Amino acid sequence: MGITYAFDNSCDACKHGEPYYCENFNPINFGGVAATDGTTRLHQDGRDVSMFFGQSSFATHSVAAAASVAKVDDDIDLGLVAPLGCGVQTGAGAVINAGQADPSSQVAVFGCGAVGMSAIMGAAVVGCKTIIAVGGNPKSLELARELGATHTINRREVEDIAGEIRRITGRGADISVDTSGNGNMMLNAIRGLKFHGTFLLVAAAGSLEHFEVGTDIMMPMRTMRGTCEGESNPKQFIPQMVKWYKEGRFPIDRILSFYDFKDIDQALRDSHDGKIIKAVLRIS
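Below the sequence we write its predicted structure tokens.
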């Protein structure tokens, strides 16, 4: 089984089969309580213990709603399944579900972390005509090419990133996805779009308080929208990603590094230092 985000299964969005639009998404995933009644299922020494993302799965046992659990094939390593329900489906789903990419699409992905790499793999699964990875780590950009990017742009070496995207695509990207949360990259993601292109904001923008787009949106009739969890129905999309992996079309193993739980601090350091793409803790 794979575990993913929580949703209340009762609001209008959930009733319409769109749990990623759940009206109570934030409180039940980040408020430390269960979806159904606002209490916590975890306790220690008579005190409530906060839950996170509907599961709190850094443990040997986890309490999750049935709606948050997706069945996968028995022969798949659960270590590979672990990140599918969050960052991987967020990136891949942004391109496939939210962006509605197809083989004619030209896609630019900003940021080459786990979410960005997943967006690149999602675009490759679709067979997008052009897949541009934008990042600042040469090793990550090299891996992005191996995962399906047709072009890479090192943001530390190219001054006019939007112009380079237009040069590569001939008219601008159909879809740009920002996974970096960097304001300058977000502007380049918008300016690198074609007329009527779509900018998908996936990353939290950190300390960004002010973001000016002006005529970059209105006159070219571009769309800017936020997207969460790849707008995926996890019970369908997680098994689909597993299927793609087993077919050799979605190499999630290439972005994962495994750590024993006792080495969690090292996993955090390696993530912070850019030595790895995605850390997975093995708890035994």
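The chain has ten helices and twelve strands.
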